[in-house]
């Protein structure tokens, strides 16, 4: 009887090896939060913060290669691929630090930062594939929710940790810590990850990989719109509305959004699998985000007593939405393409964040924070429509053999 009622975090952490895998995911989540700030401080020490910011911006383009790294993981064994690109990543990051120490050409630093991020081990992708292979149907929703919480915590703690080690040790210590935590995460990963996945024959694989699936394309569109909405909210709330507005209050509102996301993810992880499935329906979550962000756009002028609760309610939809995006992308992953599918989901979220930051900045200049906030519900509604269309779309049923047309024609 107790086994039937066991769910949530109790069910997850009762499975063998889960604590070690959770530590691997936690160390891996620090990578994304620390790399940018570690690069900024390493370059700014010898040049300027503007030069460091330029290197960070260029190196961020390396994230666009994540699907390619995911495809390599799907085609070959995870261990050799991860350690090979980790070796390249270490050499390039070390080259950046050495060039800065020797006050070498700036273009070498820029190239090292870009190439270093192009070959960064995709630990986030690997851990999301890992959760699906080391958990049962009963504990999997909790694992995906826990991974979302770790990601939020990593983006909060990572920059703080990078700043701490750079301030107390040396400007290069932030990037050194990134390499250390990434290596630890890789050592803690299960050795047989991906070994039990179904492998599609190379001749059967579409050149577009998982992007050949219309349902996945619609899901990625929803993920992009979701990330756009989140990015716009963060930028608009972080900007004081006028001379009388406090930057501390603006920072508080953004922090409340992040806290709401963590709480939302924790709540999903504590639910039964059936309830978690109902609570992570992406169209419903994005419509809730649209409603709360609309209320926030109108209520943000009413003062912190109104804005703070609205930020918390808005943030509560973030964590479950991340769980929905990554969970659904795993469900839609074609055979032998789990890592690449998860990589595309992460890339869609990154592109959405960049689009939201760019569009939000333009709207801030034209109409101020209220105008920028208006974009958030619009993006959420479009994302909800895309997610709904993907859920309604059905995979065509294969025709009988005598009526079938060869795929090569």
Automatic annotation (TrEMBL):
Pfam families cross-referenced by the UniProt entry: MFS_1
Coiled coil segments of this chain: none
GO cellular component: plasma membrane
Subcellular location: Cell membrane
The entry's keywords: Membrane, Transmembrane, Transmembrane helix
UniProt membrane topology term: Multi-pass membrane protein
GO MF entries: transmembrane transporter activity
Major location (coarse): membrane
Annotated TM spans: 20-43, 49-68, 80-98, 104-131, 143-163, 169-189, 216-237, 249-270, 282-298, 304-327
Residues of the Major facilitator superfamily (MFS) profile domain: 215-409
InterPro entries documented for this protein: MFS (IPR011701), MFS_dom (IPR020846), MFS_trans_sf (IPR036259)
The protein's name in its UniProt record: Major facilitator superfamily MFS_1
Species of provenance: Streptomyces filamentosus NRRL 15998
